[in-house]
Amino acid sequence: MQLKTYLSLFSCLFLFYANSQNPDTLKVVEVLSKKDSILKITVLNSSVPHYILTKDKLNELSAKDIGDALKYIPGTYIKDYGGIGGIKTVSYRSLGAGHTNVEIDGVILPNTQTAAINLSQFDVFSISKLEMSSGQVQNHYSTASSYVKSNLISIYSNLFDLPIKKINIKLMGNISSINAYQGALFFQQKLSKHLSFGLQSLYQFGNGTYNFNIQNIDSTYSAERQDSDLQNIKIKGAFTYHKNKLKFQLNSNYTDNKQKLPGAVVLYNPYNDQSLKTNTLNSTFTGQYKTKTIAIGTNVFIQNNQTIYRDNHYLNAAGYLENQYVNKTIGGGFIFNKFLKFETQRLFIGSDFKQANLTGDQFGNSPIRKNINSVIGFSKWLWKIKLQANLNHQYIYDKTPNNYREISHFSPFISLAYIPFKKNKFRIRSHYKNNYRLPSFNDLYYNAIGNSNLKAENAKSFNIGLTYGISIKTRTFETTLDIYQNNIEDKIVAIPTKNLFNWSMQNIGNVLSRGADISFLYAYKKKHISFLFSTSQSYNYSIDVTEKTSLTYEHQIPYTPKYNASYTSTFGYKKNNLSLSLIHTGNRYVLNENIPFNTLEGFIDLGIGISRTFKLKNQSIYSKLQIANILNTNYEVIKSFPMPGRHFNLKIVYIFNQ
Amino acid sequence: MKTLLVLLSITFLFSCKKDPKPELVNSQFNNGVLCMNEGLFQQNNATLSYYNLDSNKTNLNQFSIVNGRGLGDTANDMIEYTYLDKHYIAIAVDVSSQIEIIDALTLKSIKQIPIFNGTNAREPRSVAYHDNHLYSINFDGTVSKINLETHLISSNLMCGQNPEKAEIANNKMYVVNSGGLNSPTYDNTITIIDLTNFTIISTLISDINCSSIVKDSQDELYLISRGNYNSIEPKLLRINTNTNTVIQSFNINLTSLDYYNDILYYYNNTTQNIYTFNTTTETIDSNPLIDCSNFQTMYGIHINDLEQLIYLVDANGYTNSSIIKCYSLSGVFQYEFTAGLNTGQLLFK
C-alpha cells in the first residue's frame, strides 16, 4: 500500500483533535462495569475482539499457566505438547505464534531467536490478569512494539499491582497426580508511603510421568510417558514507587529451568534421552504517568537468555549432540497519549528501540539485530461511531560479519464501531490490520536451514462483529459474534529442498482463512447463590491457496481445527465453588493433504474443580481440588505427543494481609 | 436458554463426522506394485501401499489393514527374499528401530525384530539378504547378522559412520558409510565384510557422503557420493571389486540411480532428466531418456526387471502423497498411480 494514503489518513488526526470539544454522551458505554466483570471473558464494549481473564476466572478454569487459560478464548488454538514441561504456543485464527506478541506489564517479551513465546512458562500464580486482543492494544501504557503484530497477549503480574495493605503474603502449594509439585511465595511490603517492595518465587519439580494410550490402528499402545523430569525455579523482585499520578517500577526476573524432553512417542522404540537447560535474567524499568489529559508509558529492559540442548542418543561420532545459544537483548521505548476530553478518546505516538544478538553452535555468524518500532494513532467518537486507527512502522537492521540487511514495513490498522442505541448494549464493530511477521534468527541464520534472503510474512486481517449484552436484575446475558478473514502471503515455512535431510526456510505459501467466533454468557447472581455458563464456538476454514495445480490446493491447513469450542460453568454458594470446564476440538490434519490418513481425531477434555475459601480476619485460605480430563480421553494436540489422561490437582493458597 | 442449547448441540453434532476407514481389497498381493512409503520423522506413518494391476487402483495402508497395527516410524528399505522355499519381505524401519518380516504374498507379519543396543536404537537403514541370513545396516555404525531360523541377531559388526546401504559382490558385503550425522565431517569409506565368517576384510576410501549403490554384471559397483550439499558436488563412482579401489569418478549432479541389463539409469538434478550410462562401455548417453522437469520432487528410480519398466517417484514436496510414474525402457510414458508419503522402495509382484 501507498504511504500517501496513510499520510492523508493521519492528517485527519488533527482535525479530530480540533473537534474534540464536542460533548461526549457515549462515554458511559465505555466504562467497564466492575461488579459484573469478574467471571466474564469477553469485553463487550471493545471495537476489536478483546478478552480478559481475571484472577478469579483463571482459578475457575483450573488453568496452570496462561497457555491453559487461553484455550477458552474464541479463535485461539493452543499447540500443546503435553506434560509438565511441555511447550505451548498460540495460534489465533490461523495466525501462528509469530503473529502474536506477548507483553508483561506493557513490555514486549523479546524472542528474536524463534519469534514464538512458550506460554507454559507463565504460571497463573504470578499474574493478576490476562488479556488477549486482536488488532490494537487496548491499554494506554504499552509501548510501540505492542502495536506491531495482529494479536497481543497481555500479562499483568502480581508484583506490578500496588500493595493493598502494609504487608501482603501469599503462599501456594500444588500437588498433581502426574508427579508434579509446585511451591510459591509472594511477599509485598510498603516501605514508606510511596515506596513498596515485592518478592515472588516459584519452584516446580517432578518427573511428570503419566500413563497414556495411543491408538495403533486396531490395537492400543499403552505406556508411561517418561523423561519429563523438570526442575524450574523463578524469582522476581521489584521496587515500586507510586505517588499520585506517577508510578515507577524496577524489577528483575531470574529463571532457571532444567528438564528432560520426552520427545515424540515413536512406535516400538520407547527410548529417548534429550534434555534442555535454560537460564534467563531479565531486568526492567517501567514508568507510568497519568493525568486527566495525558498518559505516558515508558520502559527500559535488558535480557540475557542461555539455552543448552543435548541429545544423548544422537548417532554421530561423538555419540551425542549438544547445542548452546546465548541470546542478549536490550531495549526501551515510550508512548505518549493525549486524551481528547475523555480517556476513551486519544491521540498517541510512541517509539521503541531494541537490539538483540545471538551466539551459538548453530549460528556461526553471530547475528545482531537492531529494531525500531514506531506507532502513531488515535481513537475518537464521532456521533455514534468510534473510529480508531494507527500506523505502525517496523525497521530492522540485521548484521552478520559478512553481510547486513534492512527491512522496513509500514502496517496500518483501522477500526470502526457503531452503537445504534443509547441505552442498549448493542454494538457493531469492524477492523482491518496489516501485519508483517519478520523472519526470526532461526529462520534466517540457523546453520544449513536458515535462509538469509527471506522476506517478511504478510498477513491482512479483517473482522466484523456484533456484541450485545443485557442485564435484568439478577440475570445477565451476553453474546458476541465475529466473522473474519485473514489473507496470509509469503508464509515462512521449513521445507526440505535437496533431500529429506536438507531443509530450508522458504517464503512459500498463501493461506486464506475465513471463520467465525461466537461467544455466549449467561450469569445469575442472588445473595449467596451464583451461576455462570459461558461458551465460545469457533469455526475456522483456512485453506492453502498457493498453487492451483497443487495436490493440496484449497485443503485445510495442518493443525487447524475447523471447529473448536470451549464451555465453562460455575456454581457458587457462599464461599464454595464448583466449576466445570470443557474443551472440544474437532478433527485436524497433521499434514497439508486432507486425506483420512492424515487426520488427527478431535477430542473432548472436561475438567471439574471444587474450591472453598476460608476467611479469618486478615487471613484467608483458598483450597481447590481439580480433576482434569475426567473422561480420561486419550488425545493428542500435536501428533505423537499424547496428553495426560485423568489426573488430580490439589492446590492450597494462604493469603495474609496486614 | 433453550434455543442456546439447541444451537450448541447442533454445532456439536456438526463437528463429529468421521472419515471412512480404508478397506482390505486384496487377500493376495500377486499382481501389482507394492510400495514402501517412508512417512515422516516422528509421525509413525510409514506404510505399505499396493497398486493393483488387475483393477488399476491403489490400496493404501495395506500393512496396517492386514496386521491391525502400524508399520512404525520412517521405513527406509524393503527387500524380497526366499528362505526355505517361502517368499518373504524384510522392511527396515529406521526410527522404530525394527526389522519387520512379512509374508510376501499376504503381507502378514511373521516377526518384528528389534534392533537395539541396550536402550539405544541402532536404527536400521537398509537390509540385505545373503545365504540364509539377513543383514541389517544400522545408522549407529554397525551391521547386524540375523539368523532366519530363530529371527535373532547372531552378531554385530562395527563399520563406519552412519552407513546407508550395502551391496554384495563375490561373497563380500560393501557397506557404504555416509557419516551424514557428522556433517560437515562426512565419512568417505566403504567397509568390506567377508560374509563367510562375518569379519571385516578392509576399508576402502571412496568419497564423502555416499549413499545408493548398485552392482553390474561384471561385479563392478556404482555409487553416488552426495557431496556436502554446498561447495562439493555429487559424483558417480565406479569400484572394482577385485582390487577394491575406485577406478573412475564422474562429475554428475545425480541423486538417484538404478541398474538393469548393463545400463545405469540415473537422475541428473541439474538438467532434471533421466539419463542412461552403459556399464560395459562406461559411457553416458548424452540424450536424456525422460524429461522430469514437471516433477515436484524427484525421489527415486526403480526398474522392474521382469516387465522391463522404469518407475519414477515424485514425492510432491515430501509432505504429500507420492505419485509413481511408469515408463518403458525407451522412456515412453505408460501410466501413473498414487502411493503413500515418500515412497522409497518398490517391489514388483
Largest sheet of chain A: 22 strands, antiparallel, barrel
What is the subunit organization of this protein?
A: heterodimer
Strand order of the largest sheet of chain B: 3-2-1-30
Beta-strand residue percentage of chain B = over 45%
The best one-word shape of chain A is globular
Shape of chain B: globular
In DSSP terms (H or I, runs of 4 or more residues), the helix count of chain A works out at 5
CATH superfamily of chain B: YVTN repeat-like/Quinoprotein amine dehydrogenase
Radius of gyration of chain A (Å): 24 Å
The secondary structure category of chain B is: mainly beta
By DSSP, the count of extended strands of chain A is 37
Number of helices of chain B: 2
Mean pLDDT figure of chain A: 89
Task: Assign a percent range to the helix content of chain A.
Answer: under 10%
How is the biggest beta sheet of chain B arranged? 4 strands, antiparallel
Strand content of chain A: over 45%
Distance N to C terminus of chain B: 63 Å
Summarize the structure.
The complex is a heterodimer of chains A (658) and B (349). Chain A has 658 residues and is mainly beta.
How would you characterize the overall build of this protein?
The complex is a heterodimer of chains A (658) and B (349). By secondary structure, chain A is mainly β. In chain A, 6% of the residues lie in helices and 59% in strands. In chain A, the strands form seven sheets. Chain A has a 22-stranded antiparallel barrel. In chain A, strand 19 (368-382) and strand 20 (385-400) form a beta hairpin. Chain B is mainly beta. Chain B has one domain (7-348): Methylamine Dehydrogenase, Chain H, CATH 2.130.10. Chain B is 5% helix and 54% strand. Chain B has helices spanning 2-14, 62-67; strands at residues 32-37, 47-52, 57-59, 75-83, 86-93, 98-103, 109-114, 116-117, 120-121, 124-130, 133-138, 142-147, 152-158, 163-169, 172-177, 189-194, 199-205, 210-215, 220-225, 235-240, 245-250, 254-260, 263-268, 273-278, 283-291, 298-304, 309-314, 321-328, 333-341, 343-348. The longest helix of chain B is centred in the N-terminal third of the chain and has 13 residues, at 2-14. Mean pLDDT of chain B is 92; it is low at 1-21.
